[in-house]
Design brief:
3-stranded mixed β-sheet, 10% strand, globular, 7 helices, 51% helix, 182 residues
């Protein structure tokens, strides 16, 4: 057999082997039309990996270990850096402890900040959303009110990337407009 032909046949067999199981969801599994429900399902399925990633990312950003993660007694969770049951993006608790949640996956996560902030959130990469939420929750967990944390997040001392600062800035600007109009 021609060596080129043999190589092509072997390559095709290897490629078929990669896709012996259809990529994506199994047949019959439906993706929820509601972005909140889809984000929640994804978060529950991958909770262990997301929890690990969130804890590592917070540590990389310099969050002290004693401020990473919360307990959730309602769901019998003694500690987590990522809570799949909450849907707001993130939160903080006693001692300024920080967690992320399934809201970071929701492209339609809406706060009353206006179209520009909503569009920026929807367009942002996941890590950008996570870093922006971590910065906000870090500020809020440091004793600032929610509004003060929105103001401070773009200029946080945490080493978040420029894209996360820009997202936080867009959210801050939308919040300022909202407060002026009320």
């Amino acid at each position: 057999m021609n060596p080129l032909r043999r190589f092509l046949r072997q390559s095709i067999r290897r490629l078929r082997g990669l896709f012996s199981e259809a990529p994506g969801l199994s047949l019959g599994v439906q993706v929820p039309a509601d972005p909140v429900e889809h984000a929640s399902q994804f978060a529950l399925k991958w909770w262990d990996k997301l929890d690990e990633y969130a804890a590592v990312r917070m540590e990389e950003l310099g969050i002290p270990l004693e401020r990473i993660g919360l307990s959730d007694h309602k769901h019998d969770i003694p500690w987590c850096a990522f809570n799949p049951f909450d849907k707001t993006g993130g939160g903080f608790g006693p001692g300024g402890r920080i967690e992320l949640d399934s809201g970071v996956f929701n492209p339609d996560l809406k706060a009353p900040l206006g179209r520009k902030a909503d569009a920026a959130w929807k367009k942002a990469r996941l890590r950008t959303r996570m870093d922006s939420v971590i910065a906000h929750e870090y500020e809020e967990g440091s004793g600032y009110s929610h509004d003060e944390a929105v103001e401070r997040a773009p200029d946080t001392e945490l080493p978040i990337p420029a894209a996360a600062r820009e997202l936080a800035r867009t959210i801050r600007d939308g919040d300022r407009k909202r407060r002026r109009s009320h």
